[in-house]
From TrEMBL:
Cited InterPro entries: SinR/SinI_dimer_dom, SinR/SinI_dimer_dom_sf
Record-annotated Sin domain positions: 3-41
GO BP term, pick one: regulation of DNA-templated transcription
Upper lineage: Bacteria, Bacillati, Bacillota, Bacilli, Bacillales
The protein, known as: Sin domain-containing protein
Domain of life: Bacteria
GO molecular function, a single term: protein dimerization activity
Pfam families the UniProt entry points to: SinI (PF08671)
Length: 59
């Protein structure tokens, strides 16, 4: 691995570490972080399945 790629990797690693530390300080658990990373556009906790707030499901 050349020096430039190694420096980039170390920089990204430090950034990821700082992001995880910040998330933990905000009160997120490791499972919360994992769930977000697996599916960032999905809610972390399932919501009650109702159709009243969904305009596509209105009669």
């Amino acid at each position: 691995m050349n020096m430039l790629k190694q420096m980039d990797k170390e920089e990204y690693d430090a950034e990821w570490i700082n992001l995880i530390i910040s998330a933990r300080k905000m009160g997120l658990t490791m499972e919360d972080i994992r769930a977000f990373l697996r599916s960032p556009f999905q809610p972390m906790k399932p919501t009650q399945n109702t159709n009243e707030n969904n305009p596509c499901m209105s009669p």
